[in-house]
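Please fill in the sequence for the structure shown.

STRUCTURE ENCODING:
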């Protein structure tokens, strides 16, 4: 029984070695193929990379444009808000003046009736 156990251990070790060998061979083959592909496909890869870079720059420009538009909108909204607030403040001040004048008129008429 012990010899059978030793044999199975031996075959497991050999299977691992074979797997590593196959993996290494496939890795080397992949490296060679990748090298050939990079040699032959270099002009295409450069073109694709150039277009990707141009797209990135275009996208960045659009992002800046959108950011500027949003900042302009916010600035205009803030200005409009403060302008309306100032207008409201002036209207309230005028209303107070009118109420004060009305109070004075009411007081004068009220005091005039008492004297008469």
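FILLED IN BY: designer on duty
SEQUENCE:
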């Amino acid at each position: 029984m012990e010899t059978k156990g030793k044999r199975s251990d031996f075959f497991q070790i050999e299977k691992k070695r074979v797997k590593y060998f196959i993996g290494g061979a496939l890795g080397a083959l992949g490296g060679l193929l990748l090298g050939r592909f990079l040699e032959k496909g270099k002009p295409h890869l450069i073109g694709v990379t150039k277009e990707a870079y141009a797209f990135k720059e275009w996208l960045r420009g659009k992002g800046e444009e959108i950011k500027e538009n949003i900042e302009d909108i916010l600035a205009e909204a803030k200005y409009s808000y403060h302008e309306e607030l100032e207008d409201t403040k002036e209207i309230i001040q005028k209303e107070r003046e009118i109420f004060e004048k009305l109070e004075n008129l009411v007081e004068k008429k009220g005091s005039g009736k008492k004297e008469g």
